[in-house]
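Bench notes, bay 3.
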Amino acid sequence: MSIDPMMQARDYAEKAFASECQVDGWEDPQPLPNALPPVAPFCYELLPESLRFWVSDIAERMQCPPDFPAASLVVALSSLIGARAVVQPKSRDDWAVVPNLWGLVVGRPGVMKSPAIAQVTGQLSRLEMAAKEEWEPVYDEWKLTCRVQELAMKAREKRAGKVADTDPSEARRLLADDEMPDMPQRRRYMVNDTTVEKLGEVLEHHPNGLLVYRDEIHGLLRDMDKSGQEGARAFYLQGFDGNQSYTVDRIIRGTHFIPRVCLALLGGIQPGKVQQYVRDAVNGGSGDDGLLQRFGVAVWPDISKEFKNVDRWPDTAAKGKVWDVFQRLSDLPAEEDGEPQVWKFSPEAQGLFSEWYTAIKTEIRGDHLHPALVSHLSKYDKLIPALALVFAMTDRPEDQGVIHAQETLMALAWGDYLRSHAERLYSAATNPETSGAEALLKKLKKGLVTLQDGAFTPRSVAVKGWAGLASVGDVRKAAELLADYGWLVAEDAKSGPRGGRPSTRYHVHPRIAEGSR
């Protein structure tokens, strides 16, 4: 488990300070809670052998956490499988899981988050370019065919017009051949910036699904929060299941029937933005509908403070192995009747999954977890079988239809790893926001806050315009949290002789006040 040495030092200093502060009837102040709980570090054994060396190569060359490329790679591979294969997690049940996954990569600017993801999505772009090269001559041929067909249609129309009065049946026969050939569709693997209406049109021709990738996914999430975007939100929510049809009826666009809405989703986001979004989603905001909880492959790793300049060529052998997997999954056919391939657990793997499934369902029925985390963990009954299927189709394609214990154990290990990251993600809702309080406490300890009789008002701090403390509301919120932990005491001042709104003054712990003079 990775521990931030700066947080460790801060906690030690605050505890040392607190131990000396029991003076003048004041209680000992308590250290502010860490905003981020610890997470499990990424272990390369979580990946199939054919993938792990490329992920390691990316992480070393870019000096980024391996979590970034690993999570992106798993989601990208799940999008290639899409609805062409499903796993039935129970041995005697028709419950089927489509393995399309949603991934969220959390990291502040400058930690190589986007370049690491781009290494993975670049493989999908490579497939898109190959598909485009195959499609272009077919499309050109189709355009020529359409031109010839148009000329033939005009000639038949003239003949039909001449015989319409004397031989209506012949005229009908001539006009019956006026159908144009369908335009050939280029295979798509990934979309970036698209409206939900256009996305629906693309999915009409791609019922097995594709990947929606946004470098900064916060914009997409906020767009779906806006009034009037309820339909777009519902479309994405349905796309998570991967096996439901969708019909769109519009006056202008007409009726569009999508046989299957199957979407994998991947994006990066900054910590501050995701924390605010989590608070809004969990505390009854417009995002409180389970969309956030569908990001099962959400990673928020610790960032090493050390940086080593690595200047070497990429490992082409490792990259080639991954490319072979991408190509093979891209060529994966569905069954002749259009139904997906069905995979099941081996007897040993079935026992492992059933034991885990019983434990997780029992846990989420208890009352000791935050409701947001309960909702998140309830989606693991898709996440774990989907991961097991992705790993099986990556490493053991020859064992068609059977997921063995090795892939199942790997998926269960991912579940433990991802759960720690989910707990960090939802800590924004379960733990108080401490950044403002930390900033205010730092200013107080440095003596930068002007005190009168050992106290200050939020307005006297806000006028200084410090980052995170530039408004009276921000300062009051920070001061209230410091008061909760014993660093301040609030006093409601009475209105003056002329009346007016009463104000609140915050008395500072004597040891801080002495140091600030």
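Next record in the batch:
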Amino acid sequence: MAEEVLVSISLIIAVAAVLTVLARIIRQPPIIAYLFAGIIVGPVALNLISPNGSSSELISVFAHIGVAFLLFIVGLSLDFRVLKEIGKVSTTVGLAEIILTSAIGFIIAIGLGFSNISALYLGAIFAFSSTVVVVKILSDKREIDTLHGRIALGILIVEDFVAALALMIVPLIQSKSSFYLMFGKFLGALVLIAVIFLISSFALKRILDYLARNQEALFLFGIAWALVLASIFSSLGFSLEIGALIAGMSLASSKYTLELGGKMKPLRDFFVVLFFVFFGSQLTPEINIPLIKNAIIFSLFVFLGKPIIIMGLLRTFGYKKRTNFLAGSSLAQISEFSLILALLGFNLGHLSQEVMNLAILISLITIGLSSYSIYYSRWIFSKISRALFIFEGKKHRNLIDKVKTFDVVLFGYHRIGYKILKELKKLGLSFVVIDYNPKVILALSKEGINCIYGDAEDKGFLSEIGLEKAKLIISTIPEDPVNKSILEYLNRTNADSVFIATVEYAKGALDLYKEGADYVIVPHHLGGEYASKMIAKFKTNKKEYDKIRKKHMSELKKGKEKSNYN
């Protein structure tokens, strides 16, 4: 039996490895490869993982361990203090999106003939988007720090907190349990969680300080803490997933969070592969036309309806249609939390095999489609932007009564914009700040700073403000499409303006120089040059470093206050 299990796992990993390479070639996230690997090794094809197979139970155990490690590491990033930092926009939109998506999803499911409990699960499954997929693709596109990237990431964090709550409540939904019994268990769980956080705040801090002296000890403690709490919650009638998540959250404020997460990621990645493979293997050959029809209907709702909900909500905060589209289209898929929720409901007997098959198909369709829609979101927007006029946030025309000519035009206030603005004031030149974040514009207007709400990628807007008349144009937005849009407009209008752009990498700087940019700011190059001069000047004089350290901390705090309008 041991040899049979070893052969099965070896074949599963081999299939997953081959499909992961293929997925990378066609620009799909690894999750898709793992799910397809599960379908191939499951009852539909090779039948290496079948309900009655000798290897099925062991792989199921490995899959649950993978989920525990996945949620433990997710929990490490869910510090309660994060909710204060992501801002009102992400929090409000995230909660409203969950409510609206769940409600509409529930109504559609009822209309298609599903039972109330199945419709509730499906509504919840549709509400959550994949943090793993979105963060990976936005990172590849270097858009994590853009306005739409930060909004999308904030919404994902809110969704993760709500998903954690759902994982705790779901095991309590038993048809034979009374409301009072369920409520009592829920209160008991809250008390247990409070005790865990108290222990973490006082006792674990000292324990971790001691364990950190030995890397292996810290690593083993992380594994033990995740699995022990997962087992405790499971034995009390809750899901082991919520136990692992609470284990991570209880350590989220620790100074060893990054080290713990980094050490456990390789172990997590191995077991998570087996989880997604196991989930994919739950797809049975009983796939019929009605099932495929329902999968397409629900997938269209997630892929099209969910972004429309998010875009409509963001519009109420005054964001431009481009920001709304890019943020909304990033979240057009179901989450790894959705898969965990579906598997949990199936194991508890709440969901039928048909609904389980449906969840697998929806995950494959939505994750696959959204991967391409995120990669090519800017191109898609350029083709359909006119049709998105209803998602255009309100204009702040009252900030400047008449657009006039300014000596300097500064695009983008956050990041390094506020530092440049400080110097412009000293020079006595007339200037205007242009930003497409309405919160930034409103804050600047209160300070009496000339500002215009607009999008640098919009050629019509650039013409409206007469950009070619400015003597100096500075873009602090490190997005290639934005800088190229400004440069193309200046070249087309034969402007004699000095154009200074900002990029993150050397290649982007060289491309802009070839197209005619006068100077390109590459922050890490400038940072390295400044640091080398500082070292040459102060050498090993600790007192001098202490002086500059205090000054730098003061500037960073001011910069954070000035630029954090999200």
